[in-house]
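Item description
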Amino acid sequence: MTINRARHFRSFPATRVWAFLLTVAVCALGIGSVASAGRWAISTLDELPNPIAGEPIEVGFTIRQHGITPIDMSEGVGIRITLADGTTHYFTAAGDGVIGHYIARVKFPSAGRYSWSIRQGMFADDELGLIDVGTPTSAENTDGSLVSLRFAGLAGAMLFGLVALADVVVARRRRVFLA
């Protein structure tokens, strides 16, 4: 049996070269992430506020380096809100005496959906996502209907669970009688 070695050796090194290049690329990307691994923080809100347009609210939060250790920042701490048109407002936060805990007085100018984030001094901003801001009358109306909607959802889930449980019991009894 004769093997065509010329064809075999031509394709084998090309495969190795591509594998080597792919390995180098993956390692290069990994080294960059390891080199920047030491400088990050996470902020946690004391509670999610229910903002009303035009009314200032106090938003409390804690900044933790590496998600664990509360860190005291002397400047550059606050909350940034961004309107749908891209306009931003920044509200400076001040420490309240507890290491890593800050309070910002935030005022959303009008009703609507905003994106917001916490400015964490020397660390990158911590994006909080989207928040809906209502008007004084809409906030009063939605609180009551939201509670009743949650209750209806819970009642529906419980009813569905009972029907499923009854179905299991009936199915087992059928198997016993058929056996």
